[in-house]
Amino acid sequence: MRVSKYIAVLAGLGLAALAWTPAMAKSAAELEKEKALANPYPNDFGPDHLPADYVASLPPNMKKGYELLLTRCSQCHTSARPLNSRFVEPNVGFAMAPAARDQKEAAEVAKLKASHPEYFKEKGVWQIEAGVWARYVKRMLNKPGCGVAQGGHMTPPEAKQIYEFLVFDGSQRKLGANAAKWKAHREELINELKAKKPSRYKELAEDNDL
Q1: Which end of the chain is more exposed for a tag (fewer CB within 10 A), N or C?
Q2: What does 62-76 look like in DSSP terms, one character per residue?
């Protein structure tokens, strides 16, 4: 009797463990977020929200893209990562085929190189490329736990709205009259990474990926 009782107890514990395993298992998005937190970029040391007055000034469709960014992008990393990114994709409009937009953006990059060569001297401050946000958002959409096809919540139309906001926002906050302010902000973030995570700073600096 004692042996049978012992076996029954062990069986019960085994079933309990099996019952708890799914609930305790980390989701793909949680695992992605852990990885992001363990491998920070300078961006991650910046704010995870934009100033209220700036947000209030956004056109409605761009404000919607920003709001989606806060909820969807924070599934796999903090919203600080895209908001403080050095990426800038020229804003040439969105009512055109991707190939035509890439062509127009490439022409705009060439113009900026001629008119503002300083934008291209410090890769850690600005990375101005045609299609850079398009590639990034597409990659995020395909990450485990992000897009609906990967077990997450972000739909392709939502990703498009986030993409359009990021392109619009880059031209507003990072170039032109705000370029000096943006440069100071990025340099502060890079210095913070260097002070707090020197090995990670060295790794990114060697890869030219600050």
Answers
A1: N
A2: HHHHHHHHHHHGGGT
For residues 81 and 146, give the distance between their C-alpha atoms in angstroms, rounded to a whole number. Answer: 15
> What contacts 142, CB < 8 A, 6 or more positions away?
149, 150
Report CA 72 to chain centroid distance, whole Å: 10
Query: With 0-12 CB in 10 A as exposed, 13-18 as middle and 19+ as buried, what is 40?
Result: buried
Q: What is the pLDDT of residue 34?
A: 80
Residues 48, 78 contacting (CB under 8 angstroms): yes
Which residue has 């924070």 as its token pair? 74
Contact of 76 with 145, CB cutoff 8 Å: yes
Q: Which residues contact 52 (CB under 8 A, 6 or more apart)?
A: none
| CA distance linking residue 71 with residue 8, whole number of Å | 46
Measured distance CA(185)–CA(134) in Å, rounded: 24
Question: How many whole angstroms separate alpha carbon 146 and alpha carbon 149?
Answer: 8
Report pLDDT digits (tens) over 119-150: 999 999 999 999 999 999 999 999 888 999 88
CB atoms within 10 A of CB 31: 14
Rounded Cα gap, residues 132 and 176, in angstroms: 19
pLDDT tier at 24 (50, 70, 90 boundaries)? low
